[in-house]
Structure of Reelin domain-containing protein:
Amino acid sequence: MSFFWSLAFLAVVPLVMAYPTGAPLGTCVNLTPKHFNSTNPTVLIPPQAGPSPYALSVSKNMYSPSEELTVTVTSDTGDYFEGFLLQARLADDTLVGTFSDPPTNNTKLLQCTDLGDSVTHTSSARKDAGTSFTWTAPSSDVGNVTFTATFVLQYDEFWVKVTSQEIMASTGAPWVTVNSALIISLLGVVFVATKQ
Ligand SMILES: *[C@@H]1O[C@H](CO)[C@@H](O)[C@H](O)[C@H]1NC(C)=O
Ligand SMILES: *[C@@H]1O[C@H](CO)[C@@H](O)[C@H](O)[C@H]1NC(C)=O
Ligand SMILES: *[C@@H]1O[C@H](CO)[C@@H](O)[C@H](O)[C@H]1NC(C)=O
């Protein structure tokens, strides 16, 4: 094999293998895997057009600053997935919040803008529906957040930009809760004091 052909071979191998160790940074924005058609290697395989068998379920429909939420992958068909890229986005597609402690076996944090603003796979080993991720909200109210993900069932079958429901910033609610807790305990003190 000549030097030229060795180089050409090296260049083609990554295309064929796709990204078994996680989504590359190039997919951070459009969340679309660059998977080439094996019989037609210059043509990209398009995302599935039909409804996604996967969905994102979030532990709460509101977040307070710095609050931890759990995002769980669900599948109404019971399908596993091989690859994925998950982010939390504002309406203008800015990435917000930070994922932490991703399941160690097959997943890792990714830095698209800031470290931990995305999570992806570390291998194409099957991940079961029910896999969940911890996300910490930004330290201030940044507006509605939508979890957005791409799921790869297998090399030529993937769904892009699967979204959760919109998660609203909760405004004022924690103060009301603290306030009423305080009033109740003050009433308790008064009650105890009166009884003595
Ligand atoms: C790959 O290309 C062939 C020929 O154009 C087409 O029939 C096939 O559906 C393509 N496969 C995928 C997964 O897009
Ligand atoms: C980790 O992934 C490998 C490959 O799929 C699997 O064989 C193994 O059982 C997994 N380990 C755990 C602790 O889930
Ligand atoms: C935020 O989300 C809620 C619930 O989906 C929606 O009613 C509201 O219009 C959204 N606000 C903005 C500014 O998009």
About this structure: Residues 1-17 have pLDDT under 50 and may be disordered.
